[in-house]
């Protein structure tokens, strides 16, 4: 990694840390978390993930699957199935917060 790449990485890390700090200080992190939770409930993402979990357990058998395996499967499935609209809305809210707070 060259000097310029390291500096760019450091700058991004600083901005990310500053954004996270501002989100916590203003309580916006909690508001965004609640917004995300509600959107995922509205689009049935949680229900679909719960159904997937039950199906995996049914297929593999409760005795033959570990919590770690199930957690890994749910993590992958959960990330892959978040609707793009929810991701876009959340990113838009983060950008707006970023701009409003001149981060």
TrEMBL record:
GO terms for biological process: chromatin organization; mRNA export from nucleus; protein transport; transcription elongation by RNA polymerase II. InterPro entries: TF_ENY2. Keywords: Activator, Chromatin regulator, mRNA transport, Nucleus, Protein transport, Transcription, Transcription regulation, Translocation, Transport. One of its GO terms (cellular component) is SAGA complex. Transmembrane segments: none annotated. GO terms for molecular function: transcription coactivator activity. It comes from the Eukaryota. It is found in: Nucleus, Nucleoplasm. Its main location: nucleus. HAMAP family: ENY2_Sus1. PANTHER family: ENHANCER OF YELLOW 2 TRANSCRIPTION FACTOR (PTHR12514). Belongs to the ENY2 family. Involved in mRNA export coupled transcription activation by association with both the TREX-2 and the SAGA complexes. The transcription regulatory histone acetylation (HAT) complex SAGA is a multiprotein complex that activates transcription by remodeling chromatin and mediating histone acetylation and deubiquitination. Within the SAGA complex, participates to a subcomplex that specifically deubiquitinates histones. The SAGA complex is recruited to specific gene promoters by activators, where it is required for transcription. Component of the nuclear pore complex (NPC)-associated TREX-2 complex (transcription and export complex 2). Component of the SAGA transcription coactivator-HAT complex. Within the SAGA complex, participates to a subcomplex of SAGA called the DUB module (deubiquitination module). This is Transcription and mRNA export factor ENY2.
């Amino acid at each position: 990694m060259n000097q310029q790449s390291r500096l760019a990485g450091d700058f991004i890390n600083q901005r990310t840390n500053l954004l996270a700090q501002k989100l916590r200080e203003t309580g916006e992190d909690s508001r965004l978390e609640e917004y995300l939770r509600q959107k995922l409930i509205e689009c049935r993402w949680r229900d679909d993930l719960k159904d997937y979990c039950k199906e995996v357990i049914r297929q593999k058998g409760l005795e033959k699957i570990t919590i770690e395996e199930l957690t890994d499967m749910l993590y992958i499935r959960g990330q892959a199935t978040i609707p793009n609209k929810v991701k876009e809305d959340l990113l838009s809210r983060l950008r707006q917060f970023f701009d409003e707070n001149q981060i």
